[in-house]
Amino acid sequence: MEQSQNQFGLYDHSFEKSSCGVGFLTYKSGVQTHDVLLKANEALCTVPHRGGMSAEGVGDGAGVCVDLSLSFFRKITGLPTLELGEFGVGNFFLPELKKNWDAADKLIKESLEKNGLRIVLVRDAPVNNSVIRPAALKYMLTVHQVVFIKDETMDAKTFDRKIHDALMAIEAVAYLDPDLKGLYPLSMSAHTQVYKGRLNSNEVIPYFYDLTDEDHKIHSLFFHTRFSTNTEPQPSMAQPFRLMAHNGELNTDKKNRLSEATIAQMKNQQIYSPPGQSDSARLDQTLERRLIEDDLDLITAVVAMMPPAWENDTRFPEDVRVMLEYFSLYEEKNDGPAALIFGNGNVVGARLDRLGLRPLRSVETDEYLCVMSEAGQVDFDPESILRRGRIEAGGMLYYDHEAKQSFTSDEALKMLASKRDYRSLLEKARKNLDDLPRTDGKTKVAESFTDVQRSVAYGLNQESFKFLLDPMMQTGKEKISAMGYGVAINALTDQEGGMSKYFSQRFAQVTNPPLDSLREADGMTLRVALGAKPHFNKGETKQLVVPTPVLSPDDLAAIRAQGDVEVTEIAMTFLVDHKANKTKAQDDLIAAVDAVCDEVEEAAREKGGIVILSDAMVDEKRAAIPLPLMISAANQRLIEQGVRFRVSLVAESGQIASAHQIATALGFGASAVMPIVVEARAMEFAKGDLDAAKANIKQFIYAANKSLMKTMGKVGLCTAESYIGGEFFEPNFLDTDEAILKRYFPNMKNTVGGVDFASVAKSVVDWHIRACEVKTEDDIPLLGLFKERSEGAGHTYGTLAVRGFVEMTEEPIQSDLSAPEKGDANVNDLRLLPVEKLKDAYGKSSDSYRNTSFGRRTPEEIDAFKITPNYRKFALELAKEREARPAALRDVLSFPTDISWATTADEFQHELFRHDLIGNNNFYVRGLRVHHNKDDSFTAFFASKYSHERLVALSVALKKQFGDELLTMETDGEHIHITAKGLAHNYLANHKRPNGKLALNKVQPAHEITAMLASGAMSHGALVAPAHEAVAHGANMVGAFSNSGEGGEHYSRYGTIRSSSIKQLASGRFGVWTGYLADPTLEEIEIKIAQGAKPGEGGQLPGKKVTVEIAAARGGTPGVELISPPPHHDTYSIEDLAQLIHDAKAARVRVIVKLVSSEGIGTIAVGVAKAGADVINIAGNTGGTGAAAVTSLKNTGRAAEIGLAEVHQALCANGLRDKVVLRCSGAHQTATDVIKSCLLGGDSFEFGTTALMMLKCVMAKNCNVKCPAGLTTNSEVFDGDPRALGQYLMNIAHECREILSNLGFKSMREARGRSDYLHLIKHPSAIGQMDLRNMLQVVKEVHIKEPVYLEAHFEIDDMLLKEFKNKAVQRHHRNAKLVVEKKLDNRNKTVGGQLAIDIERMLQHEISEKHVKSMPMVYTDDRGRNMLKPETLEIHTHGSAGQSFAAFCNSGMVFHHVGTCNDGVGKGASGGNIAIHTPGGGTEENYLIGNFALFGASGGSLFVEGGAGDRFGVRNSGATAVVEGVGDFCGEYMTNGAIMNLGGFGKGFCNGMSGGVAYQYDPYDQLEALYSHDSVKLHRLDGDSDRAKLHQIAVKRLLRHHVKFTGSEKAKFLLENFDTEMANFKFATPLALETYQNYEAILKAKPRKELTEELANALVSYQLRKFKLAYRDGKVIANGIIPQQGETDTKLMYELINNFTVINMAQQIVKGRYRGAEISAETLNSGVRKLILTEDFTLMTKLSGIARKALEDYSDLELAVLVSDKRMKDYKTALSNRNVRLMDSIGTYGWILLQDRLNRKAMGELPDFESLFAATSSQELVKQVP
């Protein structure tokens, strides 16, 4: 493996990603004025947070592009007659070495003169160094300026062309001549010029004296400020560029570059790119080429290169759709999140990507038009503003100074579409697959091979079918699994066939969001055009458009039969030699691949069109070439020969059985695939029925399409065409640095070596031999990929490990304290009951744990702990197992070797050379010294225990190992003198002396190490409540961190030992509310960007797992699925993440960002640290505890060890290692694992799966269906003990001390990052050659003396809190009005967020109960929660608020803001009111707030006297809002609450909404086309139904509230004219509620058995609940009331019968457990009480039998009504048990009333649970009474 000079170990310093702030402003009259620069400075000064800086405070880069100032250049040139259009300006960065500046000047001068351009001025732009930090001076580059004039004969167009030619001439030399390295033209134009550098945004204008010169007058300017993930980004790649500034990331950049190079090659040209050219710089270069060489206007070029999402959007006029489709046939899309600002001196504008993943706000006055990343960057007089607008997804706004008007996106597209007859052009250029004649397709295969043999020949195994193909075909979706994928890494086993396994899918995180393919798929498309692109083909040709790249046999038959596009068929099989050794197999495969490539190249040159590569004809003589290899090789050949765009590759292959195999084929260059094995399997399942087989194939394709959308979305791509050939993979232990593999996979970046090409070739031969031997399906290999097999490869959690964990859970608990065996709560209660149930049962909560073995351990107790025998045994046996069958990368990493004990040559040989001689940097050996002498010889001698015999034995071992590489070797007394070459020389030269061992008492104490340990993030939802609390309890009790996961926690846990000290904030924001953030036990908030099981995919909690308690915690509906979207819908970029970190710091705690190990993770981590994170958590790719699709578990991300090492190296290199704690996961099981992670750079160590193992998980991997241990389902069987987990963590800490002692490190901190103490073992299981030299390289930590970090600023909140304390806490005011006199600007972020959390924490946990009661503003609810009384605390602000205004708004607060706000208003609100008032102006358009307002809100209200951006109310679970205009996806993922919109709206209205209600004023009947039909049902408000009448009341109420809080004129009008305007309102209700709670829908969906079971369980729970309450409150059941004489069929009588039945049943069980022995009444009563309080499984089962019998006589319809009634009661219970109770949700309460009414109407009087149960319990009681 070669290591470039830009690298620091794995971290590539040149690899950089960036996001930013952008904008333009233009003076509409076109008159040049200095005021534009003054306003630009104002705009740049307000958004420092959108740029980044290094730890020294040096800006990542910022700049401006301005039109040429006539007055300024007349002045500096001394040419008063100079006119615009007659002169041009070139600005340059000069070469790095000053001695080469003259050569650069000469090049510039000659290039201009050769093109007839005369230089009139050369100068260096003067700068003001006083405005930048001293540390920045060394990074500043001189802007060298050249002013030139045109020849009088040149017209404007010729002038532009000549400037372009001169520029190209300069670049052609500058970018290739090493002496001119650093010479870079910032701009060279007759219209504009660029000033930029390594600056912060507020420094740009004052730094350049030119820009502060009052004679510098301009009419237009656009700017850019960069937030780079690198602390030393290139100044040349700062922006703007020549024509544009780009905030975003082009995920298709690699393909775009390929396209550009091919076009240039076709024109006999060459593209010259500057070193380290960014995607944005490349886009600018392409844009310039399109304008000059293709003679396009700027607008056409921008639209064609970055088209809107036209494919599924019916709002586009037909002529525009036709134009965009025509463009799509020619253009290689620039796909990815983007806010693009463009300008050429005449036109200046802004464009947003097709999904709107960057914010752009516009403002227009009579004089100015501005578009910027944030609203309010320029403080215009409000009354002067005509429009406050926004750029919509795929939209555009530009100003044309020639036309003197602005154009919107619709206007521009219509204008462009009218310029040409695109319809006729399109008809000539494409044909649709759906228009072709259809025929039954059948793949022609070799008859001599059976389907079974073919499957094995294709490298498939039994699990390929059981886990991958079959579920997709049978269910239409991928199989879900859990508990990770722990089979041995590819470098340690080659059991699995095929080649797709060697490529892991990449995914977007932080700098680029994954796309929401779950709910925003209409912005994505699988459409693919097959055939030559029109401008790459000889003559006229067509492309064939297919709706998906996954083809059926019928599709492929139709393609073969058509005649519009040429089709060439090429076999990708070869004659296989079963006797071939590795070398012969390698040669044969290379020859076969190259032969096919030759045929493909010939077909592309001669015919073009479509090439079908087929391996259908495998037989006993011919083997299939591995599909990814063949596709990639063919793709690379076509690229090299410049004919890539003349042909599309279609793979007809049997090597495709999974979604990942489809992805690899497409990703490496296939335009479409037809999986042969799917066709065969479909026929097998259909038993020969052709129609059934076609249905099976269709089902598989449906699943494959869905998976492909998810895979595209993971890397941020909208179109399949963008994914095809994009190579969005990283090698998974495949050595792509090896010459042969590098040739075929040149773009795959190798990290740690691994499998070589010869091993791949031999595997093909071996699997073909197997194929010839198999007879039946049972003979297909079963490899044990998902569950360990004794003859298979090792697993991280194999049988031995699981058994060891079971044994550890059974060990006695070490503690001087015991738990009470008698009394209120005994051992079982304390370990099994959640806090709420403990309180429910006994009236006590966390106090019960004190002074027991369940309490917190003191540091002294932790330090005094003794390692337990079963842990010792486990650690020893696991070490032996890993030595024999390694699975993880760390299993082949060892500590320094010790030869002190060795005496024989064999012993020396074994100990010294178990470390790999190639893959290591160093060789630490204890007991041996090697001196490297000046003459390059070596002297070896023993450190101790010298004897001549040992010396001779060592000599023999060395000679045996190295042979002829030892040139000389002589013994001299106690020394051996050696000269060596090759590996022997390398080994001796890198021989190192390790630390000496330390006494154990010199090592840091165990309690400090337990504080470095943490439980994994597992949600309440994924885990049942007892298990979730047990994990937190076990970690907390020994001082480790516990992590809540993303589901929130019940408020009863806050402040207790069972509250998680880390609380997670994930994309669904479930359970996040003000109280959650105010928990006094909270130490860290974790922002989960990705998780190891399914990075980039989000998560889903199935409806079955959404119990009443889960629904209450998450703000959902019992039984209705809950979704965490793939992206955080408020985090689309690095600066967005910085804002979210700032939000989280409102809780005054450390903030973690969780990432997943992947390519470039070091670069991303640097960006995250710069964004303000305190802790970075690196997860591995083995999946942890999360449920995910098997392909995600198996084929995404990279090993945890590699990611951890790279992140540590990156942080060290960038001077950020001191800033952050690095937490890591990856199946830690023993202290050895922890120490290895520490040596790789870890500070803190996570235990996820292991924590569950210590709570009796048995690794059944059936978590999402039925958990035998009761951890994830079946909570009644949970039997874990938190003390066992705590004890395990103490075992880990103490063994860590022992290992540190042995390694000679005093502390974990001292050992951190000492990766030189790890060595790659030469293991017999190894496949190929691993090379860990980069991974194990120790990178020196860069320390900054006075570092500058991006810190949270809450000055406004601090001031407000002080004032609140004064008025409310100290002076006891009845209400408080807090006024912020300062005018807010964009720098005032999260205003009110910290205040809300501080007040909540103060009221619940800090102020005494007595003091709280004395505060008139506070009241206490029935649960004991202290809250501000409604509307008693007013906060008044004005101006332009920064992001996240009024985040976490809480009960009693009222925010009044006059002005504009940016993104995230009311984010996470849980109460109170927020009112945004218009400041005036905006008469034509008035968007006052930004995107994702109320994201994750669970309560409170928001009233906006104007419009809002996209995703308004996303994931709202209880807030009420009224707004006057929204963008796309309003109400997305909403689970409760109410939204009313009185203005315009976009697509995706109520996407994924599963609760609550949305109201829309729709006077033009546009909603029908734009709402989410699969999520909600639309109703008219003016209907006469009960439902409509109820919602009429709700609408009126909301309108009145809107008027009350904002004074809205629109709301007043609607109220005054409600009787007529009511007809213009529609309201949307969730289909999920209709489906789950309406009895008619229930009847259709559920069989009788399931209805009965659900009701029976509910009846039993109800009966037990009565007893639990009575026990808790110390009351007699039913208050001791007895029925009167003659009283029979009354509720009281039913209740008494049922009570006696329950008691009697429980007594029988207790007696049965004593096996007939006499027991006392006290024992019997105690036993009965215990059964009831713990909901004993046996008791529940017996009572359920009674309940089922009681339901036998009801009809199916009646059962459905009873189930509906039960579900409505559950819903009511969930609503009342929410952490945040709904305060103002008429729609929700109305729905409940309506359903109750419908149920009564359907069944009459509904039987209550007492009478239902008594129907059978009375009979049971009679049977039991003697």
UniProtKB/TrEMBL annotation:
InterPro entries: Aldolase_TIM, ET-N_metabolism_enzyme, GATase_2_dom, Glu_synth_asu_C, Glu_synth_asu_C_sf, Glu_synth_centr_N, Glu_synthdom, Ntn_hydrolases_N. This is Glutamate synthase (NADPH/NADH) large chain. It comes from Cohaesibacter marisflavi. CDD domains: GltS, GltS_FMN. Keywords: 3Fe-4S, Amino-acid biosynthesis, Flavoprotein, FMN, Glutamate biosynthesis, Glutamine amidotransferase, Iron, Iron-sulfur, Metal-binding, Oxidoreductase. Belongs to the glutamate synthase family. GO terms for molecular function: 3 iron, 4 sulfur cluster binding; glutamate synthase activity; metal ion binding. Residues 20-402 form the Glutamine amidotransferase type-2 domain. GO terms for biological process: ammonia assimilation cycle; glutamate biosynthetic process. The keyword Zinc does not apply. PROSITE patterns: GATASE_TYPE_2 (PS51278). It holds the Pfam family Glu_syn_central. Its cofactor is [3Fe-4S] cluster; FMN. SUPFAM superfamilies: Alpha subunit of glutamate synthase, C-terminal domain, FMN-linked oxidoreductases, N-terminal nucleophile aminohydrolases (Ntn hydrolases). Pathway: Amino-acid biosynthesis.
